Amino acid sequence: MKTIILISLLAILCTTVHAQDPVKTSPQYYKVLLENDQVRVLEYRLKAGEKEPMHSHPTGVVYVLSGTKLKFSHSGGRTEERAAAAGERRFGAIRRHTRWRISAIPKPMPSLSISNLLDRTVHLTT
After folding, report:
1. Closest Cα partner for 61 from 93, 17, 28?
2. DSSP bridge pairs for 43
3. Which residue from 54, 70, 116, 120 lies 20 to 30 Å from 77 (Cα-Cα)?
């Protein structure tokens, strides 16, 4: 009985530590463009003034399609403002944050997020 309780507790703890799927926490902002066992490609759109709830991402690449200015609040309490220019590419490790779009530009900010890349080449075309 103690073993079952311990395993259940461990499973709960591991679940809370791992990435929270932003498609599930914020489906209004994320659209899955492609997903298989090798790669996941997301389209992300956040309008001016909108705030996304706390979530995390796996290691991946982001390609910004339209520029904007964002404010991040990280799980440790640190905040930062960051501009994202059209055509900008970023690589990042697992991170947990909340994100606000503080740009006055009213149109949605589209970007692509590609994750689960292991020794693969990705080609983006417009």
Report:
1. 93
2. 31, 112
3. 116
| 58 strand-pairing partners | none
The pTM assigned to this predicted structure is: 0.65
Whether the per-residue pLDDT at 117 is higher than 50: the answer is yes
Report d(CA 96, CA 106) in Å as an integer: 26
So what's the pLDDT on residue 27? 92
Which residues make Cβ contacts (< 8 Å) with residue 26, sequence separation at least 6?
A: 52, 53, 55
Across 33-46, average pLDDT = 83
Residue type, 37: D
* Alpha-carbon dihedral angle through residues 17, 72, 46, 84, given to the nearest 10 degrees: -120
Could you give the domains of the chain?
Answer: 20-115 (2.60.120.10)
Q: 33: closest CA among 121, 117, 111?
A: 111
Contact 30, 65 (CB under 8 A): no
